[in-house]
Amino acid sequence: MKKAFALATLLFCLLSFHQSFAGGYPQGPAKKLTPGQLCANPNSHRYPEGIAYCNRDVSPALKRQIIANYDKSFGYNIEGMDRKNFKIDHYIPLCMGGSNDITNLWPQHVSVYTLTDSLEEALCEKMDLGRILQKDAVILIKKAKNNLNLVAEIKLYVDHL
Asked: What's the pLDDT at 3?
């Protein structure tokens, strides 16, 4: 029984490792480098809730640093890939009160942002309508960006708010 449990644990770890490196780029933000950060120095406040909003302000040098950090920390080779297939994503989107801080930014591949961008927009629209609070929208977008298989389900939920 212990051998079966140990084998199952090892298999789970190997599958998790493979999934996190599938395609040679991150499938989601790495908690170690990108835990997420809310806007601390807002340019304005938005929505009925009055959340802090930071204007987009990510320099080319910071974008290069983020890619280099992910490459070095996780063995990716994003720097060697076609740059137009990546964007530097705000883990907590600016429209939800996210920050431009390096702890809220990660290199997002086109295969990932084609799944998550419409959910970000839908969540921010619902915030604007007062149908969801910032704290709940942040929980949902983080869940989606860390579990791409749940994006469609979360989007259906948000569409019905």
From this structure: 52
- Read off the tokens for 16: 């998790």
Other Cβ atoms less than 10 A from the Cβ of 145: the count is: 27
C-alpha 43/C-alpha 91 separation (Å) is 19
Residues 6+ apart with CB under 8 A from 78: 24, 25, 67, 70, 71, 86, 107
pLDDT at 16 over 90: no
CB 56 within 8 A of CB 99: no
- SS3 helix, strand, coil % of the chain, rounded to 5? 60, 10, 30
pLDDT band of 23, cuts 50, 70, 90: low
